Every structure is written in structure tokens, then in C-alpha cells.
TrEMBL record:
Residues 270-361, 375-463 form the Rhodanese domain. CDD domains: POD-like_MBL-fold, RHOD. PANTHER family: PERSULFIDE DIOXYGENASE ETHE1 (PTHR43084), PERSULFIDE DIOXYGENASE ETHE1, MITOCHONDRIAL (PTHR43084:SF1). This is MBL fold metallo-hydrolase. The keyword Metal-binding applies. It holds the Pfam family Lactamase_B. SUPFAM superfamilies: Metallo-hydrolase/oxidoreductase, Rhodanese/Cell cycle control phosphatase. It comes from the Bacteria. PROSITE patterns: RHODANESE_3. InterPro entries: Metallo-B-lactamas (IPR001279), Mito_Persulfide_Diox (IPR051682), POD-like_MBL-fold (IPR044528), Rhodanese-like_dom (IPR001763), Rhodanese-like_dom_sf (IPR036873), RibonucZ/Hydroxyglut_hydro (IPR036866). The keyword Transport does not apply. Keywords: Metal-binding.
Amino acid sequence: MKIEQIYTGCLAHAAYYIESKGEAAIFDPLREVQPYINRAKLDDAKIKYVFETHFHADFVSGHLDLKEKTGAKIVFGPTAKPNYDAIVAEDGQIFEVGDYKVKVIHTPGHTMESTTYLLIDENGKEHGIITGDTLFIGDVGRPDLAQKVVAELTQDKLASLLYDSLRNKIMPLSDDLIVYPNHGAGSACGKNMSKETTDTLGNQKKTNYALRADMTKEEFIEELLDGLTEPPGYFPQNVLMNIKGYESFDKVMDKAQNPLSPKAFDAAANETEAVVLDVRQQSEFIKGHIPRSIFIGIDGNFAPWVGALIVDVTQPILLVTPKGREEEVVTRLSRVGFDNVIGYLDGGFEAWKNAGMDYDTITSISAEEFAKDFEGKKDVVFDVRREGEFVAEHVDGSKNTQLDYLNNYLSEFPEDKTFYLHCKGGYRSVIAASILKNRGIHNLVDVAGGYDAIKKTDIPRTDYVCPSTLK
């Protein structure tokens, strides 16, 4: 069967393309749709359907633009209620794509409309399942997202439905089916996903904790909900955009193509209350940046951090980017629903400096320098990694102030003395430093290289000890 996984690492997202006899279908496309259109052109094929496994929370799908540009029909599973023209399929309904068949299997649990698509080849053989967020490699979809949009859809209710969907709809299928999930490791839509992005269903039955044959519903719910962290704040807004519709990607891009001189950029920032988002490399931001700008580097886990920290997708944004990467940045912002980029600094930060505009810096020191006189610093060390990373091992005496929830910790940073920030490798701590400076907190020092560099010094550290090993 001709199926291609189109994987986007920065979102840990997988879309799928199938083609048979000049007809094609796309499953769970990203916001920018031209790559899918170009792929179909290579096969001289027409995109007939856009299949959606559910209303996504972590990205804005490109289904509406694909429909507009290609005439393809949008297909959702049972119970979906989109605010635009789409096919809401029945459980068991079959769609034809050339000689292939796509069978709808309603699998509620991650969301109520969540649907798995069974792929059947030209010989009538069942080839694989496109599972969306129902089944990942090593995990299953978290059941706590729909409640952010519909209050009565509690995580316990959806977890119960997911258990039934897996046992009654997925696990009875053939072991040799290939599982094609919507996400891989790094996505916030699950908690224990493998770095592998496909597997056989038979192997998942053996290795995926959620598919244990002897698991009771109560055990499933308990294990599924254990360790779930609060989902990023932008998730509900993306769900609503996917349900209600959105501005076309072309219009978003046209609006953002607005190069501004340093003075015009400064005026726009003051007049619009836009967030000034600097996406350069962190070492460049440390050396110089526009005062009160926020750093989230384009070469890191960019879009999810924007969603987690800026949160409001309607927020006006002004960009400071590496030269020539403006379009890339706008594209990656739009993937998570941030469609209100109103311009960018023409000529980048160098133009700002050359115009004689004021700029700020961040004090940053090496791990070796940090290690000197560590005893005098240990009560003012702040680790912005996630809780699991901190629990596993951390600098003695340090405090865990996770970047995801940094605003909740503002009162913990001292006002009367210098404090130190670090993460794992240096990316997140610079984000944290930029946010704190934006809040008027400047008595901070970044530890370059983060915990990875600190481990190479003689600074005392605390490692996690499993309780079962204690005597």
C-alpha cells in the first residue's frame, strides 16, 4: 500500500498521505498545505479527502485550506460538530481512494469524536490503522483535554471510554497491522511516547502499558491519569479554531510580511502592546536584545514553548529573526494558532544596534565559574527544568521553578541579591531570563550549558533514589 508519513519534528507531529490510481487523501495535515498539494502533483493525483482523526489541541490543522485549494472533502468521525461544511461519518462507513478503502472506526476517549481509520489495500487486505491520538507508540492519548472545552467531559469519563475503545475496537484487530499515530516523543498529547513513530499492533499489545490484556478498567484509568501534567494553555484555543474555522494561511502570511525600520518597530511595539518575540540563537540574545523582548529560539522546541508561555493566540506579535527566516517563523507560529504577527524588524537586531537604539544584555557565566564559591550561591540557584528532570537529579539546594509555570514562582526570586538560573542545556534558562527581565527582574545570572555542563564540575548534586532500594 502506498502510504507516506510526513513527520514534523518540532511538533512531534505525523500527517499521512495515501494515493491510488490518481486519487489521494491526507490525514491530519498541518496548517501550511502547499507541501501536501505538491506531493499529490508528483503522482499526478487529485486530493479527494482530508481525514481528521479529531479536533486537535496542539496544532491548527490545514483541512480548511486544503478544501479551499483542492476541492477535497473534509471527513470527521461520528459526533463531530464542525462549524463548516464537512462529512461527519458513521461508525463503520467506508470511503474509497482509488483502489484503497478507508474504514471509519469510532474510538472515543481522547476526545468524543476521536476516530481511527483502518486502511485496506487494493487486494482487500487490512494494512494499518491511522490512530490519531487514540493510540501512540508506547502510550495512548491523554483524556483530560476535552474538559477544557466541554466541562462535563471529565478525564475519568473519557478515560473509561478510551479503555472501551481500545479493548473493543483496536485490540481485536490483526496483530500485523501497522500503527500510524499522530504524534511521537516530545508531544504534550501523551506522557510516555516512544521515539519510534510506527510499529505493529501486535508489538504494541506486548509492550504498551495501556494494552495489557489483563488490565481492569480501574487499573487503566489509574495508570493513565497518573503523572499527567497540566496541558499547555493554548490547547483549548487550538481546539476551538479547529472546530470553528480560522483565517487562511495565505492571509496570515500576507499580514506578517511587514518589514519595519527600527523606529517604526519601536513605535509599533509601544502603540499595539505587541509581544516582541526574539527567535535568534540564545547566545546572540544574551549579547544583546531589545529591552523587554521575549526569547524563544526558532532552533529549539519553538512552537510548543510559544504556546505554553504566550498562551493567547490572538496576542499581537512583533518578530526579531535571523535574516531570511521570517517566513519560517510565521509558518511555525501559525501551526499553533498564533496568526497575529504584525511585522518584523527589517535587517534584524543588527539594524537596531546600528540605529543607536537602546538594548539590553543577560549576564551569563560558565559552569566552571559557577562552581567557584558554590557554597555562597547554593541558596539562590533556580532550576527551570520540568519536575521529572529535577527529581531525577539536581544541584544541591536548588529550587525547581519550572519554565512552563514560571509566572507562578515570581515571588520566590530574591529581590536583594543575585540569583542563578539553569536548565538542561541553556535554551530554557535564557527563555526564563527573558521573561523575568520583561517582568522587571534583572538581578539574575544564566549558567551557560545548563545542567549538562554543571555535571562536569565538582558541584554537589542530589540524585534520585528509588524508594524500593532504601533499607
